[in-house]
Amino acid sequence: MRLLLGLAKAIDVLSEGVGRLIAWLTLLVALLSAGNALMRYGLSYSSNAYLEAQWYMFSLIFLLGGAYALKKNAHVRIDLIYGRLSQRTQAWIDLLGTLLFLIPMALGVLYLAWPWAMTSLAIRETSPDAGGLPRWPIKLALLLGFALLALQGLSELIKRIAFLAGVYALAEEKGRGVE
After folding, report:
1. What pLDDT sits at residue 80?
2. What is the four-CA torsion angle of 122, 128, 132, 138, rounded to 10 degrees?
3. Tens digits of per-residue pLDDT, 122-169?
4. Does residue 19 form part of some domain?
5. What is the sign of the dihedral through the CA atoms of 169, 11, 138 and 122?
6. How far apart are CA 178 and CA 165, in angstroms?
7. Running DSSP on this structure, what letter comes out for residue 129?
8. Is residue 175 in some structural domain?
9. What residues contact 138, with CB distance under 8 A and at least 6 apart?
10. Is residue 152 situated within a structural domain?
């Protein structure tokens, strides 16, 4: 179990690092969005590349930020019942949800998106819009995002199993989360 908890810790560190990058990317996309608006309305200048870069960065925030959100227990959910349950029951719900839904969904998306992304990479797909950006990098980011999500799901699964076995403590984070 110690080896598995070490793996979970390494995955958590990876998710934290990607989360820090996403925070900076959020600032960058906000600046780019403001710059686009100023140029479009103030200077009557617009560029498909700037608009697509904004779209790509926004996509990256959500694609790559999913694993970080899972690690921080920040995914949206309705807690009418879950929050009132014991930590042990919550761990069982998280374990079953991860095993039955999260990991199969993430692996399913990877399986289905792989040929689509690889074809895009092979042909070096670009935007059909004049002055647009290459499309293949954002399609590869889809694979990366769901791979990170599956890995963080594995980390959460390991931690829940260890908690249920009595060898790991789930810490309260911001009133409810799991550390």
Report:
1. 78
2. -40
3. 999 988 888 888 999 999 999 999 999 999 999 999 999 999 998 888
4. yes
5. negative
6. 16
7. S
8. no
9. 56, 59, 60
10. yes
Q: Which domain holds residue 132?
A: 2-170
Q: Under the phi-then-psi rule, with left for phi > 0, alpha for psi from -120 to 50, and beta for the rest, what region is 137?
A: alpha
Nearest in space to 166 (alpha carbons), one of 103, 73, 114, 88 = 88
58-101 residue pLDDT tens: 999 999 999 999 999 887 766 778 888 899 999 999 999 999 99
Whole-number Å distance between alpha carbons of 63 and 91: 25
Q: What is the CA radius of gyration of the chain?
A: 20
In sequence order, the 6+-apart residues with CB closer than 8 A to the CB of 25 are 57, 60, 61
Q: Which residue has the tokens 């260890």?
A: 162
3 state SS for 3-14? HHHHHHHHHHHH
Total tally of structural domains belonging to the chain: 1
> SS in 3 state form for 67-111?
HHHHHCCCCCCCCCCHHHCCHHHHHHHHHHHHHHHHHHHHHHHHH
Task: List, in order, residues 6 or more apart from 162 with CB less than 8 Å away.
Answer: 1, 4, 5, 8, 168
Q: What is the pLDDT of residue 123?
A: 95
In a domain, 177, yes or no: no
**56 Cβ neighbours under 8 A, 6+ residues apart:** 133, 137, 138, 141
